[in-house]
Each structure stands twice: as structure tokens, then as C-alpha cells.
Amino acid sequence: MTHRHVDLFIVGGGINGAGIAADAAGRGLSVALCEMNDLANATSSSSSKLIHGGLRYLEHYEFRLVREALSEREVLLKNAPHLVTPMRFQMPHRPHLRPAWLIRLGLFLYDHIGKREMLPGSKGVKYGADSPLKQDISHGFEYSDCWVDDARLVVANAMSAREHGALIMTRTRCESAKRENGVWVIDVVHTETGESQRFTADGMVNAAGPWVSSFIESKLERKAPYSIRMIKGSHIVVPKLFEQSNSFIMQNADKRIVFAIPYRDQYTLIGTTDEEYRGDPKDVAISDAETDYILDVANQHFKTQLSKQDIVWTYSGVRPLLNDESSNASAVTRDYTLHVEDDHGKAPLLSIFGGKITTYRQLALSAMKDLKEYYPNMGKEWTHAHPLPGGDMSNDHQAFAQKLLQEFPFLTQAQAKRFTGSYGTQTYVLLGEATSVNDLGECFGQDLYQKEVDYLIEHEWARTAEDILWRRSKLGLEFTTEQCARLESYLKSELANEEILISEQIA
Which listed residue, of 134, 203, 374, 479, carries a Cα 20 to 30 Å from 109's Cα? Predict the structure, then answer.
């Protein structure tokens, strides 16, 4: 069994684990991270794809969380402009909602409670005959938030961590962790090869998401300091419901919020739900009741009426929220709690309870602040002013896509647009010296070429067709069964060759 020592060992490859890995490595700590599946495999790829302050959190008086989240919008717009883009949201006003003056007051607070430099403020809107909304909805409100490619944001943070020297291990399960002589002794196993590896670490972070408490109880064999409530959120994707570029935020009579968001040009993403979940997080799936609920809210608002037959894709995720004893799942706090415990001042364990994708960077800052006494020589905070890989570009996607087309005229408009919003300036690494479409290799379908797949294997930890089609991209929505099978066959062949090469190098 091989052995390696690091300053900090992180369990969990979601947004919080990847964010802490990047922050810690950039401060000069040696870092290793293990994820039992693919990066962003669970909750972090199942969000509503929004970087937002959380307008509805104002109703629950979570002003600090809203202020922090609103400030983070600006940071992420600057540091990840390829993945985080401005979006306007319209809130149709209906009789069961609060009075218009009160909503305007809430939006005024939303505009001014946090830092806002790049995004326009709120305003009222009127709906006419050309509106996609039902005729009885005549007016509403519009405000700013942002859209994000959630899974790619996780990958970008993992890449940033690796750039600063971190070891990122996917498909690697933490089998056990125990303190010995003031350090953590951690055994991990690769879930596909069965290969075991031992690490020692001065500190450990439990960023296991929905498994945060069960990890403490099963792997560390101790009682979890907090209980979590697993709240399931489900979404549906349907053919494009409206032509407008803005999203709609719809508040139901039960005060729950459902978004309708333009998605990949051809679709509309609708969700989310909030319901208690008590099963294994890996088995989460949308229920008939959730499907009916989302369709009902959409059909209350839009002229185009939807049925289950219109749904082209669904996904569900479990949010591990701190149990604050709220009786209503929608009211459970989206704030986070970090718990640190050590053994006589050594071998700290920091566990993360709660959180949301918008505030992941602030959560990482808080984690490093809590760990500072154990690592007095760590560097200063830096992530606020350092673009994520691919993010050293302006937020003008159209201009960057045109630049790609000028430099790589063999690309299609659709490719240039997708590369801009997925890879940003990393597109130059992906395309390399390619001068024609023939240099891109085999096309697996939907403009996914061998060169892009090879890039994802080499630079982004992709191992399966699911990794590529559903997390690194959303091309799975258009891929046929035959195309998926061909891609999977290619991946198995390439990875087998990679393992042979590694074995020869070791020998």
C-alpha cells in the first residue's frame, strides 16, 4: 500500500469540497481530495443552475445569507464569466401574492442589501397580448440574478486546486479515518481498480454533502455533532416554453417558488420542489406528486399547457440542510454551519452542514479561517481576485465566440457558443493546433468530437459517457442510444490504453 502525507485531506468532490481544495492549495497547503464517484456527481449537479441572493430568503429574515450571496454574484461574474452569466427574472403578480407595494419594497431591499456593480436593478413590467403568460396576468416585476453551469463550476474549482498542487482523486472512496499520534491516518480505495492507498494528514475536511453525518458515524465511528434534514429538489425539462431570454419566478399559493428558466436554447427548465427525503441520497428521483406539482404551477401561469408527455428529462438532488426544527421544508435554512473538533489541539476535523452553491467560495473562506490556528503559515485569501480556469475573458460571450470562429473557422456557430459557455479560454487548450475539422477526430454526435473527449479525459477527470454527456456537458439530451454506446466504447478503449501505459511506466 502506497503512503503519502498532506497538510489537508478532503472527503467529497462537490462544490464545497472542490472550493476548499482550491482555496487551501492556493494558500500553500498540500491538499488531497477524494470523491467516491465523479466530481459534482450528486447535489452539486442537481441545482436550479442559479447564482442568486435568494429573494425568498428575505421572508425568513436571513439577511446575512442574502447579503453574502448577493455579493458573491459579483465575484463569480468576474472570476467565472464563462460559467456564470447575468439573467433577468420576471415575477408575475397574482391575487394570492403579497401587495405590489410590499413586493416592490422587498425588491428595493434586494437591490441594495448587497454589493451590485454589474447587474441592473429591479423594475415593474406590464404584460400584453404577446406575453407567454395567461391573459389574466397583466403585470409583474423584474430583477437581476445569474445563471450557472453548476457541475462545470465544480470541475473548474477542482482544476484550480490541481493547478496549485492539489491531488484530486475521483472514484476513490474513503474506507476509514482515525487519529494516531496527532495526525489523521486515512485509507482510501479506488472503486474501479480496487487499489488501496494510505494518507496521513494534519487536518481533515468532511465535505460529504448528504453523507456528512453518516460519514462521521460509519467511517469515523463517532456521533455527528448536528443532524441534517435531507430536502429533495426536483426539476423537469420541457421543449422551449417561451421565446423571451428572461426567466420567470412563480410563487404558488402555498408560498413555494418555482422557476421557469431558458435552457440550452431548445428547452425550458422548471423547478424546484422542496420535500423531505429519508432514503439513500444516491437513489433520489422525482416522484409523481412532484411532477404534478411542477406541471400545475407552470400551467397556472403559461398559455402553453404542459402534460407529462412533454417532459424530456428530469433530475433530482438532495440538499443536506442543517436541521433548524422548521416544520416547513421550504423554510429550512440554506445557511451553513462549520463544525471543528480536534484532539488536544491537533488533527482537526472540519465538517460542513448545509450551504448553497452561490456561497461556496465564502464557505471555503470561513473554513480556512476556522483552520487558521492549525496552519499558522498558510497564505492570505486570494480567490476573490483570481479567475477560475477558463475565466480570464470578458463576460461578452458573443464576442468571444466570434473570436473563436475567426481563429478556428472550421468550428460551427453552435460549437463556438458551447465552447465559450463551457470552457472559456480553456478552449485553446482543447483545440490545440487543430486547423481543420479533420483534426478533431471522430464525431460521436451533436458536434462532440474525439479531441474534446480526449481533453475531458486528460484535463477534467471524465471516465464515462455519463460524466461527459450529463456533467461536463448536457449533450445527453440530444444523444441517441447508439451514439452513447459508441462514446462509451471509445472511452473504455482509451482508458484501457491509459492503464497499460501507466503500468509500463511503473515497470
Answer: 134
